[in-house]
């Protein structure tokens, strides 16, 4: 009987811990709008099946659709751009660490439509739980707060720097994809970024940003101009991978 009481008490404590409350608040505020793009196979199935009429195409129509998708995929090869020596802002507010995996987890960047301070604001998200192997669902992401991967998957962990928000927003609007790769632990904001006690400072997570888009000149011009306008721009390295 004593062991049962102890188990119940432990569960109650875990549910009402400060860390669990923080995760619950963030879950309610930010419903993950990040959805994976349909795979090529899914696009083929959707193109070959008319949901309204429930009619399957003839063999000829099927071959035409598959050929058109093959032609498009062969022409539109996406370029990979890398921004090094960057940070994820706002850890002191979100207090959620990204999972420490090998290789590093790619954290999707998406638009934040409800931000009243910056209309171009973008959030960095931890991918949904079903994108991770079941073996690591109970991996501890924050020992101090007692958070597991299954507690924080699908939640935002911070914002992109203000100086990059406008260019990132345009890239996303033009069907590009952006991911953050955490390269260090949360730390007080450091030079060239604002001091921890200054506006825009606080606690940050060192990272690299990976950008994918089909138009090289469009992305390079946007990012180069953004870096020129940023006080920290000269310390950020931009390259085409």
Commentary on this structure:
The strands form two sheets. Strands 1, 2, 3, 6, 7, 8, 9 and 10 form an eight-stranded antiparallel beta sheet that branches. Strands 4-5 form a two-stranded antiparallel ribbon. The chain is an alpha+beta fold and 241 residues long. Strand 4 and strand 5 (147-148) form a beta hairpin. It has two domains: 40-75, no CATH class; 79-240, Alpha-Beta Plaits (2-Layer Sandwich). The protein has helices at residues 2-15, 18-29, 40-48, 59-75, 91-94, 149-152, 162-173, 216-229; strands at residues 79-88, 107-111, 122-125, 140-142, 147-148, 156-159, 177-182, 187-188, 203-213, 237-240. Residues 4-14 and 34-54 have low confidence and may be disordered. The radius of gyration is 21 Å and the shape is globular. The longest helix has 17 residues, at 59-75. It contains eight helices and ten strands. Helix 3 (40-48) packs antiparallel against helix 4 and helix 7 packs antiparallel against helix 8 (216-229).
